[in-house]
Recover the amino acids of this structure.
């Protein structure tokens, strides 16, 4: 099967959408399917971690978005520049991964060529816009997000959502299209133990942050944005310090809120123990998860919360607030503790795992077993069923240039 993805986000942009697309694309390639990915260029990021393999990627010129310099927009009219390449590829299925400029481009291509529009809703934009539309009242920002979602998804043939919670959100917006819950699966082999790699990564990080040589280590991995509720973890760390004064919080990732959070940590007297790494190569992540005592996650906006499962695959227990996609992922106290949005409960469970070696060992073993249900092979079967249905419903149209 030949599959085209349209997405406003792909490598070297680091986020959950990028990881989801790559994970599924790799799984599909292993089964013999062919992939093309239509996405923005990233002139300022392209050499961050080495050259991305561009053989299956169709990039278009883009500009930074108004709310995040890391994100890019393109003119959907550029679709006409790549029509010959897409038509030559002659896809069986088109999968639209985002709601903005490349999402609009993909939906136009589907309408022009008679493809059912298969889309994935990765992001709960209502909660993001509340943080990133500076100076705009919260209610208005949420209204804008709902309007964008309704407009983008209203005519899609099949909408894939990563969790039941997001399906409920979309239903609440009045989007009554066919929805299928398919979480992003993880490649378990990527997170397999590698002692030599682990030693290299630990040595590299400890040289950069000598504090990591001793003491308890809490870990956060993700975008450093307001919507991730990272400041909550600073309060957790401060209370952990009452028992473990040499404990550290390692924050892996980057984002627009990082400077403010670094300043906030300093004002709280945590500047030496809140360690911001910025973006790191993804291949280092399994080692970083493995070196932590606990993965701590306070985000309440996740469509999926996949990082909790990544941590579990590495045998690192999780303490997380059980809201939105995180609740779907953990489904209770599996591989750690899923808690309410309550500082006292979060800290109590964190200290319980840090202080009880037997409990920590049981939860680590439980995490490895539980995480296996989220591996990519099983969920790829479900994705292919959607693709096969969509391919059977295509009604090819006479080829022509853009029309609106």
């Amino acid at each position: 099967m030949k599959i085209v993805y349209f997405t406003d986000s792909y490598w070297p942009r680091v986020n959950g959408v990028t990881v989801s697309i790559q994970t599924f694309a790799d799984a599909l390639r292993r089964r013999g399917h062919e992939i093309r990915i239509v996405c923005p260029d990233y002139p300022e990021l392209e050499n961050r971690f080495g050259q991305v393999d561009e053989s299956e990627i169709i990039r278009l010129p883009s500009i930074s978005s108004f709310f995040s310099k890391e994100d890019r927009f393109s003119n959907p009219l550029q679709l006409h520049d790549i029509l010959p390449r897409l038509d030559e590829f002659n896809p069986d299925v088109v999968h639209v991964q985002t709601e903005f400029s490349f999402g609009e481009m993909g939906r136009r291509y589907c309408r022009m060529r008679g493809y059912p529009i298969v889309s994935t809703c990765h992001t709960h934009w209502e909660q993001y816009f509340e943080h990133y539309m500076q100076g705009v009242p919260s209610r208005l920002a949420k209204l804008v997000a709902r309007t964008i979602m309704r407009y983008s998804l209203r005519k899609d043939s099949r909408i894939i959502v990563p969790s039941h919670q997001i399906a409920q959100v979309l239903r609440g917006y009045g989007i009554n299209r066919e929805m299928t819950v398919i979480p992003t699966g993880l490649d378990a082999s990527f997170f397999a133990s590698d002692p030599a790699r682990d030693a290299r990564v630990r040595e590299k990080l400890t040289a950069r942050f000598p504090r990591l040589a001793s003491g308890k280590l809490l870990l956060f991995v993700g975008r450093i944005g307001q919507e991730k509720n990272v400041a909550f973890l600073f309060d957790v760390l401060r209370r952990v310090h009452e028992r473990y004064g040499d404990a550290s919080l390692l924050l892996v990732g980057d984002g627009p809120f990082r400077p403010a959070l670094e300043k906030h940590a300093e004002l709280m007297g945590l500047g030496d123990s809140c360690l911001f790494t910025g973006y790191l190569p993804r291949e280092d992540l399994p080692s970083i998860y493995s070196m932590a005592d606990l993965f701590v996650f306070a985000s309440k906006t996740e469509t999926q919360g996949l990082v909790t499962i990544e941590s579990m695959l590495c045998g690192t227990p999780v303490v997380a607030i059980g809201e939105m996609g995180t609740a779907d992922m953990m489904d209770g106290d599996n591989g750690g503790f899923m808690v309410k949005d309550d500082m006292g409960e979060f800290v109590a469970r964190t200290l319980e795992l840090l202080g009880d070696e037997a409990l920590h060992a049981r939860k680590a073993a439980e995490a490895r077993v539980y995480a296996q249900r989220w591996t990519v092979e099983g969920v790829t079967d479900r994705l292919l069923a959607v693709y096969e249905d969509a391919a059977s419903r295509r009604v090819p149209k006479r080829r022509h240039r853009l029309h609106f």
User: Anything to note?
Assistant: The two ends are 29 Å apart (CA to CA).
